[in-house]
Structure formats: C-alpha cells, structure tokens
Write a structure and sequence with these properties.
- The complex is a heterodimer of chains A (141) and B (396).
- With 141 residues, chain A is an all-beta fold.
- Chain A is built from no helices and 9 strands.
- In chain A, the strands form 2 sheets. In chain A, strands 5-6-7-9-8 form a 5-stranded mixed β-barrel.
- By secondary structure, chain B is of the alpha/beta class.
- Chain B contains 13 helices and 11 strands.
- The chains are: A mainly beta (141), B alpha/beta (396).
- Bound molecules: zinc ion.
- The site of zinc ion (ZN) has 8 residues of chain A, from loops.
- Zinc ion (ZN) binds next to loops of chain A.
Chain lengths: 141, 396
C-alpha cells in the first residue's frame, strides 16, 4: 500500500524519502518523478533514509473512530489514538504519525524527543499491514 | 490594483441538516440573490457554480445543474472545484469574465448537502491520493489537524482551552442574531468545557459541524450596475486565489508531512498570511482599513490564527485581541459577525460565497441586530484543501 515508505527492523527501522541530486531537496512521502522545488531544473531522485529521531512539533489524539478507508475492528471498543507531528532537524521537515500503542497525549509535550519505530496498522487472517509509529525516546514498549 | 465589480444581489438558503438535494438549496439562494438584485434569471449572461460531489457521476458538476434547475436559457456556464475555496474561485471566475467583457452580469451559486459525521474521501483504493492516504495510513481526520494547530498555539503563545472556548462564546452570541445560521443559541464557556474532547485539546463545541446550505451572489460590471440604478453598490476590490510557496513548512490538510526546508529557505510568511497579503495588495488596502472580517473558523483555535494572519494583531497576540473584545460586535474589528462556521457549519462549496453575502449585508448597513456600525471595508478569508487560497475584499 505504501511501498518504500519505510524499511528495517528494530533500531534499524527508518522512514524512507527521496532526495533530489540537483538541489538536495528531500521528500516524504517519497517523490519519485519530479523534484517539487520550483527553482530546480530537476535532478535524479534517489532513496534516502530519514532521521530516526526528532522533536515533537505538536500532538493531539482522536477520541472517535476515524471513518473508512481507515480500518478499525468493529468487534473492539475504540481506544483513542494519539498523533505526533515530529520536526526532523536534518531534513527541516515535519512528519505526522500515530504514537506507539500506549502513548497518550498525557505522555507528550512540544519539544520532546521521539523516535520512529515499526508498528502494526492492521491485521487480518492473511496479512499484517505495517506502519511507522513515533515513540518518546527512553520509553520501551 | 484591478478594476472593481459590483455585488448587485446576495441570497442564502438557511444552513442546517435538511436532508434534501443540494440543488434545492442552490436554487433557493440563487432566486433570492436575483430578487435582491432586482433581476430576472433571463437577464443573466453567465452562471458560475461552485461544485459539490454528485453521487452517481464521477465528477463535480454545479454550474449547469443550477442553470437547468432555474430553466435553461442559454447562459455561458462555468463550474469550479477548489474544495473550501470553491466559492471564492467561482466569484473570481465571474469577476474575470466581467472584467474581460465576456459578461455584464453573472450569477454565482454554491450549495451542498454534507454527509453525516467526519468528512472522508471518496471510496475505492486510491493510494495516489494524499487525502485517501491520510485516512488509510493514519486515520487522521480534519479535527486531528485542528487539534495539532491548537496544541501548537498553546506551546508557542500560551493560549489556553479557555481562550479557545471564548471564540465559540463570541461567535455563538453573534450567530444567535442571524436568522440564516443553523445554531442560534448562545453557548457558554462552561458548555464548551463540558462537551466531549474530539481531538485534544479541542472539544466538540470548538469544532465546526458539517451542514447543508446554499449561497449566491449576482455580480456585474460597474457600468451595468449604474445602468440598473445602483450608483453606489457594494464592490469587490480583490479576490485572492494564491497557492502556497515552496517549501511550505506548516503541516497542512491533507498532507502527512511538510516540505523540507533543507535545500531552500522557507518564504518569510505562511500560506494563510500570503492569502491575506495578496488580497490587501490587490485592493490597495491594509488591515487598518477593515471594518469587519469573516474568517474560516473550522475550529475556535484557528480563528485566533487568522487574526494574526490577517494582520489584525501581531503574531501570538490573537488571544489578547479576543480578550480585549476587539473582535466581538461593538469592538474595533468584529470577526465572524455572521456567527461564522461555529454557527453555520461547513457546506463546502457555499461557505466562501456565504461570507461574501455577509459582507454585502454589512456594507449595505442592512444586517439588523448584528450590524457593524458604519461598515465600509470587509474581508472574507478562507483556505481550500490541497493549496487553494481564498480571500475577498469588498467595500462600500
Ligand atoms: Zn531539485
């Protein structure tokens, strides 16, 4: 579904973006066709891993189940899911993601350091869909 | 500075959850705007529709839908889709036709019947659509983004949830005076605080609902207005429809990430700020000239952001402006005297046109109990998903 957006396991898990060889702009989600810098003549776009750690730009949660195409299990009661927008210093960009399971807004603060970890988006009998989560550093699941 | 166009007529269908087809709301608004202008539908040379999604047809069609419902009469037709900026772009298209001499008098209509609950993307597996992706991968609804902005303001400017509630209290008090508004009861800070959290720190009463509604305006050349006995009509001086500039560094609907500022320094102003600046430059006016503003209060916290983006106060001073009463009726610069989206809810293709309807009534001095005394200049500011800027400046 989001082929090539992340790779690796454990401490090697990284979000993957692309970088323009001409102007060094970085894109996430990956931009594979054209550099979007309006001043750039356009270079080759190559895959690049994003910083593993960043700082909380802002955060919130969702107290009601989101509508489809988000997949929720109707058998289970809805647990509020926290969201973290994370500022990556090297890339100078903000990336939104769900917080790791168990992390709530009470655990978060703007400026807090977080790291990207692999997570499960959804699973059924045949397939497990993976995603990325943000988790405060120093916390282990 | 471009030439002016006249607003000859304004009309609305009351907002609510009426459960009828959007065409009904649009036609009712159109007929009221035509009557207000003292014109017949057959007098109209062109119609511009702000689009909604029509079930059963894979596209966005509105101009011809309203033209057919009003009775085919051969008018030039345009349909415009720009998400929440659709209404402003429809007004811009009408204005361009008038200024180009393609039409003397144009009817602009927007109407919608909003679905129940959260806005969501159309069905099907569409991983090439950023709107689909943010729901599928993250479950990030619109209120999630509003919550992020609100929390960011709390961290940056020390705004509090009580401050946000104060916006709702103000807007509901003004909406109570507006017969076209959907919610017409005053809301207290206690009621906001007692409503359920939707996206921390925002509660149900901090976030605008989705509504059915319709709005329409009749625009004409200044010469046509004079010929029809309107020597001093409300005039549109500016319509800002700018896009953001790269790199856009504020996380915005429906994106999962911002542009990277690694290779290119970000512009000195945010997207919303540039929307306002473009409108001021085109009108040859500034924030100090405004009598009132209608802004896009998707959430209470976002209204405070607009104060700063419109230059009504300095950055981080939105709460102070609010607490001082400057943005309430009777204040220095009343904001959302219509009641805003807080009192109307979103009827996407109609709302930017509805903002201009409110400016028109205010500038004519016929807004009744919610009249801003001596209103001369008004701005309507808005923002459409996927990078559509929207602002209109009208004067009398
Ligand atoms: Zn480039």
């Amino acid at each position: 579904m989001v082929t090539g957006w992340f790779a690796g396991e454990g401490n090697d898990f990284r979000l993957l973006g692309t970088r323009c060889s001409a102007c060094a702009s970085v894109f996430f989600p990956r931009e594979d066709h054209h550099c979007r810098n309006p001043s750039c003549r356009g270079g080759e776009l190559t895959e690049v891993p994003l910083s593993r750690r960043g700082r909380v730009w802002s955060y919130t949660d969702s107290r009601y189940p989101p509508p489809s195409p988000y997949v929720t299990d109707p058998e289970l009661s809805w647990e509020p899911c926290a969201f973290i927008a994370v500022e990556l210093e090297a890339e100078r960009m903000v990336v939104l993601g769900q917080a790791a399971p168990g992390v709530t807004v009470a655990d978060l603060a703007v400026g807090l350091e977080v790291e990207v970890v692999p997570g499960v988006l959804h699973e059924d009998a045949e397939t497990t869909w993976m995603t990325w989560h943000w988790r405060p550093t120093g916390v282990t699941a | 500075m471009t030439e002016e166009v006249a607003v000859l007529g304004a009309g609305m269908h009351p907002w609510g959850k009426w459960g009828r087809n959007f065409v009904e709301y649009g036609v009712a608004a159109a007929r009221e705007a035509l009557a207000d202008a003292g014109l017949k539908w057959r007098d109209i040379g062109a119609i511009v529709g702000a689009d909604t999604v029509r079930g059963g047809y894979p596209g966005h069609v509105a101009g011809a839908t309203f033209a057919k419902a009003l009775g085919w009469q051969g008018a030039r037709v345009t349909s415009v889709y720009a998400a929440c900026a659709s209404g402003a772009q429809a007004i811009d298209a009408a204005r361009a036709q008038i200024l180009a001499g393609l039409a003397d008098v144009v009817l602009v209509v927007g109407a919608d019947a909003a679905p129940k609950g959260f806005f969501r993307p159309a069905g099907g597996d569409r991983p090439d659509d950023p709107d689909w992706l943010r729901f599928r991968i993250l479950g990030a609804t619109n209120p999630v983004y509003f919550g992020l902005y609100a929390r960011r303001r709390m961290a940056e400017h020390s705004d509090t949830p009580d401050d946000f509630a104060r916006v709702k209290v103000k807007n509901s008090a003004m909406g109570a005076l507006n017969p076209r508004a959907r919610y017409r009861s005053r809301v207290t800070a206690e009621e906001v605080a007692a409503s359920a959290v939707v996206a921390d720190p925002l509660r149900l009463l901090d976030i605008c609902a989705t509504s059915d509604g319709g709005a329409a305006v009749v625009l004409s050349s200044m010469e046509y207005a004079r010929r029809h006995g309107q020597a001093e009509p409300v005039r549109i001086l500016a319509v800002s429809t700018v896009t953001p500039r790269y790199p856009s560094t504020v996380l915005d609907l429906p994106d999962i990430a911002t542009d990277s500022a690694r290779a290119v320094e970000p512009p000195g102003e945010t997207f919303r700020r540039s929307i306002a600046r473009a409108a001021y430059e085109e009108a040859g006016l500034g924030p100090e000239d405004l009598s009132l503003a209608e802004v896009y209060d998707l959430s209470t916290a976002l209204e405070l952001q607009w104060y700063e983006d419109l230059g009504l106060c300095g950055e981080g001073e939105g709460v102070k402006l609010l607490r001082d009463g400057a943005t309430a009726l009777g204040g220095r610069i009343p904001v959302n005297v219509s009641g805003g989206l807080a009192s109307f809810g979103e009827a996407v293709p109609a709302q930017a046109i509805a903002q201009v309807c409110e400016l028109t009534r205010q500038l004519r001095g016929v807004a009744g109990d919610r009249q801003v005394p001596g209103a001369r200049v008004g701005i309507a500011a808005n923002q459409g998903l996927f990078g559509h800027g929207s602002a209109v400046i009208a004067v009398r």
